[in-house]
Amino acid sequence: MFTERLAQLPGGIELSYTDSGPPASSSTDYTTVIIVHGMGFNAHGFEKLHDLAAKYNLRTIAFQRRGYQGSTEYTDSELDDQYNGRKSCGDRLALELAYFCQHVAEEHHIPLKSKDGKSGGIAILGWSMGAVSAMSIFSDSTNLPSDIHDNLAKYIRNLVLYDPPYQAYGYELPANYEAPKPASDQTHAPSSEEIYGAVRIAISGYYDKPKDWSGDINALDQRMRADKVTVDGWTAEENRNYFSLESAMKADFSMFMPPFQKLVGEVTRGVLFSETAAKGLFPSVQVTLLYPERTHWYCVWGSWITQKLYNECKNRGEIIRPLNVVHIKGGNHFTHHDKPNEFLAAVQTGLSL
Q1: 3-state DSSP call for residue 323?
Q2: Model's pTM, two decimal places?
């Protein structure tokens, strides 16, 4: 059974989280996976992992981002910073994540990472739009006080990007992108509730790419409802527990606006494609990209562009963070819920590379 806890961080910030606990009293080399949830779908959706984590020598901790149940709300000025894409917003995300990692390390006396970086320590896992927060700590050396960085460098060993959509990287769609035509019977502008309702169905579907797909975005399945949809199988209680419409509308909607997307693009370049950050900010950290092969096209496109840009950097001889891609056959955007054992096995594989 997992435990519900509350982290009290500097500045009066509180973050609610669930914790699987250590795998066994005798384990001294387990890895603590700190999970950052996405937009709307909150940390409770990862609770299936907690009872299985010990099997993979993992400790799973999933926290509610600010603005979600049990955690501190954003102030009006902080929401304004986010809406306008100010650097202070990215700095705050990085510092608060660092404080939380520090809380976990000190409060629970977790193992340090091993000398070879293959066991122990912390892996920060960002799912979907949660990848923005997960990446923030690795982007800009000015975000963190040196003492916090140096202490966390003893623990943090991997950044796991779990199926982020292209918006989580700040990528733009190509000029030749052809948007699907809206339904012919649409007679009114959809409400926010209707938009989020459609998105939660679309993003949780199972889709197939064309055989030998080579990057043509218009060849991807862009239906708003797939034949199989994860949330269709949720009970009313699971829907209430796992999805927070009010939080998504208030805390996350502006993440898709141009100012914040510009900021996200800068964060991505700093984390994945910057020699400066790779050499000076948690330099031993590797990046794992978890790629469920039946995910939504937003995420297929994000993964495709990330791997393309990474290979271009490597071909130019640039020194950037190592990126390993772990495919999850048959998985969708909710592999952690639908196939939790396969998901944890993929995490374990990524951490061993």
Answers
A1: strand
A2: 0.97
